[in-house]
């Protein structure tokens, strides 16, 4: 099997090394890493990027998004993505480990921000022309601080990231019609559920298993997923399986039957039926169409 490349922050060139943070202007970043940004890969960190110029596409977990001035993208660890540009891009990029943010804001979590809250929320935001320059200046401030060697550098970067995320959240909620949650308990349970599914979806496909892990009934867990995402617990489990199967079909040399086995399906025919029901085509047809 040829695995999807998983990049970490230490692989990126840095003038002022910080082991859990990186920032750059986009032109320099893409030039330094031109050998792989156009190839599917994933990260073990959170990534945020703003485009002030340029056009093209950004594929994130098999969903394609347009790149244009004002595009902002948010990636969580583990997501597969690549960029393809039609015209030269400009902007700024930064990424960081979860601890980099949360150690400085002990009472806050990255998942409080809607773009990191759930896999189901769009990983992109399109700013209007009057706000592009304002938000880009915040990314530039982060980059400029990253290039300094002043006292309390990491603390200031963390503060700048926090205020940038807050401003982006205000625009995100205004533009993206994100459903407002009425119960903080529901939000916390959904976060825990998604983490459990990520860790166990290959072996555990029963909603009852996840409900038991969360110490609630299956009926109540379905009530939570319906209220927050409009889907059942089983829907979320199946969607995670389908996403992983797509990643393996496109980015590995595994046979379709071995992929089925890796995902916990000993009967390939059954797996194929599940895949076709959700995707609208067989695994083989999907793989051929994507290639």
Automatic annotation (TrEMBL):
SMART domains referenced in this protein's UniProt entry, alphabetically: HTH_ARAC
A molecular-function term among this protein's GO annotations: sequence-specific DNA binding
Annotated ranges, domain HTH araC/xylS-type: 191-289
Coiled-coil region: none
Protein name listed in UniProt: AraC family transcriptional regulator
Gene3D superfamilies, sorted: Homeodomain-like, Jelly Rolls
Highest taxon listed in the record's lineage: Bacteria
Keyword annotations of the record: DNA-binding, Transcription, Transcription regulation
PANTHER family linked to this entry: ARAC-FAMILY TRANSCRIPTIONAL REGULATOR, TRANSCRIPTIONAL REGULATORY PROTEIN
PROSITE patterns attached to this UniProt entry: HTH_ARAC_FAMILY_2
């Amino acid at each position: 099997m040829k695995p999807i490349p998983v990049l970490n922050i230490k692989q990126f060139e840095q003038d002022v090394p910080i082991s859990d943070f990186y920032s750059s202007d986009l032109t320099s970043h893409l030039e330094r890493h031109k050998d792989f940004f156009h190839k599917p890969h994933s990260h073990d960190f959170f990534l945020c990027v703003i485009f002030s110029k340029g056009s093209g596409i950004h594929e994130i977990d098999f969903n394609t998004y347009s790149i244009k001035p004002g595009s902002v993208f948010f990636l969580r660890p583990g997501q597969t993505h690549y960029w393809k540009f039609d015209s030269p891009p400009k902007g700024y990029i930064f990424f960081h480990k979860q601890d980099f943010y949360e150690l400085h804001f002990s009472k806050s979590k990255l998942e409080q921000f809607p773009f990191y809250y759930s896999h189901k929320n769009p990983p992109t935001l399109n700013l209007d022309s009057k706000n592009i320059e304002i938000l880009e200046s915040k990314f530039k401030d982060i980059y400029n601080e990253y290039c300094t060697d002043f006292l309390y550098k990491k603390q200031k970067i963390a503060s700048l990231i926090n205020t940038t995320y807050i401003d982006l959240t205000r625009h995100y909620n205004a533009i993206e019609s994100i459903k407002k949650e009425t119960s903080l308990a529901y939000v916390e349970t959904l976060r825990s559920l998604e983490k459990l599914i990520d860790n166990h979806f290959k072996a555990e496909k029963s909603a009852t298993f996840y409900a038991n892990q969360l110490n609630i009934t299956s009926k109540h867990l379905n009530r939570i997923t319906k209220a927050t995402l409009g889907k059942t617990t089983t829907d979320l489990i199946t969607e995670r399986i389908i996403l992983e199967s797509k990643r393996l079909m496109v980015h590995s040399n595994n046979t379709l039957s071995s992929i089925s086995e890796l995902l916990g399906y000993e009967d390939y025919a059954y797996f194929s039926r599940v895949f076709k029901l959700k995707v609208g085509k067989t695994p083989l047809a999907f793989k051929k169409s994507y290639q």
